[in-house]
Amino acid sequence: MCVLCETENVHLGEPAPGVHLGRTTKAWRDYEVGEYTLTFHDTPFLKWARQPTPDPYHGLDDATLDALSAEEWDTQKAWLNQALEFSDGVKLHPQEGWRLVDACLKAGYVQSCDREVLLWLWHKMGKELE
Predict the structure, then answer these.
(1) What is the percent of the chain with per-residue pLDDT over 70, rounded to a whole number?
(2) How high does pLDDT run on average in the chain?
């Protein structure tokens, strides 16, 4: 059975080449209604419940980040906690992990600037949903 068909997965975007973001609209086996999914073409490899959100301070230099107010830091911490919750839940086969990182590199991820690839991806998926 096709997981995407059985869950009536709705395509929401493509955060990296060949990596599709979707959302289930029907429960099936271990998929719940409303879960977000990442697929390579038609094969799901990751699912989670919380909607991805973009980093509110993405792209700011260190000096600007250092000048954030306490309230702005609270906003940043809340985003980071959500992104880390997503990152901590990711368990991939090494080949799937390699394919995901390779696709992110092709989409503009730069390790020296963006640091953690899954935090970058959380931001990128959030931008897809804006």
Answers:
(1) 99
(2) 95
Tell me what pLDDT residue 59 has.
87
**Residue pair 45/39 in contact by the 8 Å Cβ criterion:** yes
d(CA 69, CA 75): 10
Instruction: Name every residue whose Cβ is closer than 8 Å to that of residue 14 and which is 6 or more positions away in sequence.
Output: 20, 21, 128
User: What integer is the mean pLDDT of 57-69?
Assistant: 91
The H or E element spanning position 79 is helix 70-89
Closest by CA position to 99, among listed 23, 36, 9, 16: 16
Q: Can you read off the two tokens belonging to residue 56?
A: 């509110």
Asked if residues 44 and 37 have their Cβ atoms less than 8 Å apart, the reply is: yes
Distance CA 6, CA 44 (A): 12
